[in-house]
Amino acid sequence: MKGYEVLFTGNNFLRLLSGLWVTLRISLISIGISLVLGVLLGAAMTVRNKAVKAVCKVYLEVVRIMPQLVWLFIVFFGITRSTGINLSGETAAIIVFTIWGTAETGDLVRGAFVSIPAHQYESGLALGLGKAQLYFYVILPQTVRRLTPNIINLSTRMIKTTALVSLIGVTEVLKVGKQIIDANRYDAPDAAIWVYAAIFFMYFIICFPLSVFSKKLADRSK
Amino acid sequence: MDWLFIKEYYPLYIRSAVLTITIGVLGIVLSVIVGMICALCRYYKIPLLNGIAAAYTELSRNTPLIVQLFFLFFGLPKVGIVLSPEACGTIGLAFLGGGYMSESFLSGLGSVRKIHLEAAASLGLNGAQTMKSVILPQAASVSTPAVCANVIFLLKETSVFSAVSLADLMYTAKDLIGMYYNTTEALTMLVIAYLIMILPISIVFTLLERRLRHERV
Lengths: 222, 217
Fold this sequence. Notes:
The structure holds two protein chains of two kinds.
Chain A: H1 3-8, H2 12-45, H3 50-65, H4 68-83, H5 89-115, H6 118-126, H7 131-161, H8 173-183, H9 191-220
Chain B: H1 3-43, H2 49-61, H3 65-75, H4 85-110, H5 114-122, H6 127-157, H7 169-180, H8 183-216
Helix pairs in contact in B: 1-2, 1-4, 1-7, 1-8, 2-4, 3-4, 4-6, 5-6, 6-8, 7-8
C-alpha cells in the first residue's frame, strides 16, 4: 500500500478530522470564555485606580512570561498533585488557554480603548451625549473595528497552540495520526510523511483564511 | 518542598537549559537570516522568489511548530532524510521564525515613505546605497519591537522540543515527575529555569522599545 492511500483507507481521514475537532473544540471554548473575561479585564485595565491596574498588569505579565506548555504542565500535573483533583487533559487545557486568552484579549481591549483619541470623547460630550450614549454610539463601534482583526489573530494563535495538548495526553489529531501510522507500520511504512503533511495542511486550511480575513479587516479600518 | 531533591537534580535543569538556549539561539539567528532574505525578495518583488517567499511565510505562520517538528522528525525519514533531534529543533524553529521575522522586516521596509526613496534617487544614490543609508536605518527602528516580540515568542516555543525527544527543560521535568513523582519540586525548578531565561530578555526588550519610541517622537 502506498503511503498516501493510508489516509483514505477505512475511516482514517474521518478519524483525523475528529481528532482535529478535539483541539478545535478546546480552542473555541477557550476563545469564547476569554472574549467575555478579556473584555472585563481590558475595561479594568483602563480604570484610574492604580491598584486595579497593577493587579491586572501583574496577571498579564505572569501569564505571558511562561510558555503555554509550562502552564499546561503546571495545571495538569501540578494541580492534580497538590489538590488531588483529577483534571482530564481537556479540562486542564481549557483552563490554561482561557487564562492565557483572557490575558491577551484584555491587553488587546485595553490597547483598543487607549487608541481612541481623546477628542472623540470630548466631541461626543460636546454634542450633549450622555455617558451611555457616548460609549454606545461613538467609542464602542470604533473600538470593535480596531479590535476585530487582533482578536482573529489571537484566535489563530490559540488554535495553533492547542496542538500542544497532545503532550498532556489528550487524543487529538497528532495522537490519532500516530495511531494510524502505527497501525499501518507494515502495510505502509512511509505513511508518516503523508499523515503529518495532511495534519500540517489541515492547520493551514483553518488558520490561513482567518489570517487573510484579519489582514483585510485591518487594512480596511486604516 | 523537598530541598534535597532540588539540590540533587538542579544540575539536570542547567544541562537542559543550556541545550534549550543553544538550539534556541541558533534557531533564532537562522530565522533572522531566513526572514531577512524573504523580506528582501518580497520587497524588491524579485520574480518567482517573491511568490516562494510569500507562500513560505504563510505556511510557516499558519501552522503549529509541533506539527512542523513531527513532520521533520517522523515524516522526513520516510523519504530518506534522517535528522537528529537537535537538527530538527533548529530547523523547525528557523522555519517557524523565518516566517514571523520576514513579516516583521517587510513591514519595516514598507514603512519607509516613497518620498524618501525619490529623494535618494534624485540625489543620485544607487540601489545599494539607498538601501544602506536610507531604507535600512528607518526600517530597523520600525521593525525592532516586532522582531523583539518574535524573539521572545520563539524562545517560548522552544518548550515544544521535548516532542521530538530532545532532552530540554520540559523533557527533564516530565522525566522527573514520571520517575520520582516529586511534581511540585520538578515544576518549581521548571518555572524558575524559564524565568531566568526569559525575564531578563523581556525586560531588556521593554527598555529598548521605550527608548526607540522616545527617539521617534
